[in-house]
Amino acid sequence: MPDSAPQTLLGFDYGEKRTGVAVGQSLTSTATGLTTLHSKQQKMDWPAIEALIKEWQPDALVVGIPVHMDGTEQPMTLAARKFSRQLHGRFQLPVFEAEERLSSVEAEEYLGSTEDKAAIDKEAARIILQSWLNSQG
């Protein structure tokens, strides 16, 4: 990030049913899973996102943009980019896109065998934000 002042960021692992959310700090370059938001009738829970933004007062947002292993786009790539644009339009915060591959698989491996999809999405958001923070340093 261009500014060297410590910054708070919210990271998102966008999904059509669930979106994982993490919070991170540029000073410590660490991210922590926060929550998982559930879409209602395929509509994002914008009031919940607004509440998180009011609570955490982030300086910027990071959205994981899923791509195939070879870097090519997939159907969710366009949906995640649209979500990214909507975040910027609604909240007027800088939004950074973080190319991501297999964050949910990595989250499942980290958490062990779990059927808790919300926990996986929250951990995937942490992984995306942590990777983005690592790439900035």
> If you consult CATH, what is the topology?
Nucleotidyltransferase, domain 5
Please identify the top-level CATH class: Alpha Beta
Question: How would a textbook summarize the main sheet?
Answer: 5 strands, mixed
Structural class: alpha/beta
Mean pLDDT: 90
Compute the number of structural domains: 1
Strand content: 25-35%
Number of strands: 5
Proportion of helical residues:
40-55%
The assigned CATH architecture is 2-Layer Sandwich
User: What is the CATH homology-level superfamily?
Assistant: YqgF/RNase H-like domain
User: How many DSSP helices?
Assistant: 4
Strand order of the largest sheet: 3-2-1-4-5
Written overview of the protein:
- The protein has 137 residues and is of the alpha/beta class.
- It has one domain (8-136): YqgF/RNase H-like domain (Nucleotidyltransferase, domain 5, 2-Layer Sandwich).
- The protein contains four helices and five strands; from the N terminus they run E-E-E-H-E-H-E-H-H.
- The chain has helices at 46-56, 75-91, 103-111, 117-136, and strands spanning 8-13, 18-25, 30-38, 60-66, 95-100.
- A five-stranded mixed beta sheet has the order 3-2-1-4-5.
- Helix 3 (103-111) crosses helix 4 (117-136).
- The chain is globular and about 35 Å long.
